[in-house]
Amino acid sequence: MAYRWDDDSTGLLGLFDDLVRCETRLYNALNDRLRERHGIVTSQFEVLRHVRDHPGSRVGDVAAAFAIGIGATSKGVDRLEKRGWVVRQANPSDRRSSLLALTEDGAALVDAAEATAGERLAELLAETFGESFAEHALPAVAQALSNLRSALERDDVGTPTG
User: Which one in 9, 16, 50, 96 has a CA-CA gap of 20 to 30 Å to 34?
Assistant: First the structure.
């Protein structure tokens, strides 16, 4: 049955509300813990992880990965660079762009922050769903959200236009 916007009996709008509010609250909870323990915020953590996990990324690649504007991404990378966590290196195949790399301090920071983020997420999920969530329900929930994200990215849905 196709979803009809004028009949939300399937609860899709409620699901949307729940997804958005959960994302915001989880993001903020991580933000608080990361700031407290490492002096960074969640957006910085995410960029550092991306640069670590995708060597040779450009600012545009980071922006595309997070579906945010290039200008905002560039400013965020500038702040990481000023803190000594990221460096811009000449791109040998395109003089107009640079490649991003973590410094040693940046690599150490993102590794420590990743442990903190994982710990905090585990706490929040265990408080809500119990200790067995990770073993039983998490794989199915993670797969469903991964499938949704992949479809949205594949179809270029929600990409900034400006």
Answer: 16
pTM given for the model: 0.85
User: Is residue 38 within 8 Å of residue 112, measured between CB atoms?
Assistant: yes
User: Six-digit token pair at 105?
Assistant: 């301090």
Helix (H) or strand (E) holding 96: none
Residue 47 structure tokens: 């960029």
Is residue 68 within 8 Å of residue 160, measured between CB atoms?
Answer: yes
For residue 102, count other CB atoms closer than 10 A to its CB: 20
Q: What is each CA distance from 96 to 72, 90, 117, in whole angstroms? A: 18, 9, 35
Instruction: Please give the average pLDDT of every successive group of 10 residues along the chain, which has 162 residues.
Output: 60 88 95 98 97 95 93 96 96 89 98 97 86 78 89 87 62
